[in-house]
Specification:
The chain has about 450 residues and is α/β, with parallel strands linked by helices. It binds uracil (URA). Uracil binds next to helix 9.
Amino acid sequence: MDPNPNSRFSMPEIIRKKRDGEKLNHEEIRYFVKALTRGELQDGQIGAMLMAIRLKGMDPEETLVLTQEMATSGKVLEWPEKWRGLLVDKHSTGGVGDKVSLPLAPALAACGCKVPMISGRGLGHTGGTLDKLESIPGFSVSQSPEQMKMILEKVGCCIVEQSQELVPADKILYALRDVTATVDSLPLSTGSILGKKVAENLTALVLDVKIGSGAFYRTLESAQQLAESLVSVGTQLGINTIAVFSKMDSPLGHRVGNSLEVLESLECLEGRGPQDLRELVTTLGGTLLWQCGRVPSVSEGTAHIAGALDHGSALGAFQGMLQAQGVAPHVAQALCNGTEEQRLQVLGKAQVQEELVTEGDGTVQQILALPIAQVLHALGAGRTQEGQRINLRVGAELLVSVGQRVRKGTPWIRIHYEIPALSDINRRTLQGALILKDVEPFVPGLKVIKTLSPSKP
Ligand code: URA
């Protein structure tokens, strides 16, 4: 049945057109998104439309229109005139140990930007920023547009979930894409990712595109296609958009798992912590400061972000954000200014910590992110169904680094778990993640590979 009998559009006809590989016009795409948002379509029709788009694709013009219509399916956030040119955000294609948003948003706020970050939850084997933040008692990811504005005025950054008010079309489509094998569609991904960014009414966006065995995109070529579509559509919709490609074979940093990643983010916010995490935070932040014209070069932007981490202003903004999003002042204080022990008291620690030791001598060539993520997922750190409760304390600490020489019997990973317990199969899988080679120790290269900017019209 067609949703609106008086409409000059027919959903079955729109599905047929796309099924047969024809181009949809603006009105047809608008009709689809509006009918979807109003709840007028049957799940079967939405699923058929998603699969038709997945199989036949959309050209750049259709993709642009889909993104515009997704963005305006709800409220487009409005900001005071005095913030013009200051609104920035980052999107990551997802990785293991990817906690970049936690230090990046407050570091940018400390450098004078406004960061209205709408983040997601764990997807597949990768973690989600909202889950990490929810390991902090009291932190509320649910904030109305009015509350977001107040937090940006006071602190400069907020990290929130998508709501009924913001891009509702994406909320419906994303849940259905997950169960209809249509997640890996270029136009649908572009509409989904950029729909939310356009609704944030941004000046500049940096895309953190991960490539490698622990990422959704294994090769530079496949990641490049998505990045080109996002940079092109983002730019046409008035957002200064740049993609930064980085390696995701080994986890980012030394800690994986929701509450453990909060601990490592705090170290980064104190100017300490793993070098690869700091590299990504300063590069992505520096790029954004340059994109919105606050510094004359990316390298100066990078230095500004590094300064915000080293001198405590980023940590101060993080503490402000925690309190503005519901964390009690004494809890925020213990987290941001306490010892690791005090931080763990706030975040909670899993009942069991078990160390695995190396099974031979050699130099650590790689620590594969995917098997570690899969074991943690099985131990309850990730979801198999939407809305499922996860154990935020489950995680892993890497006790060795890539390039380091180790002897047989050296503890190399500490797993934090409760129920279910770590099994022998899990232990074997984890041992397979540590790749030792008989070579000289080495200093690992940079994570960032290259940058993609919009081509000149
Ligand atoms: N994140 C999103 O929000 N949408 C996608 O399609 C993929 C990742």
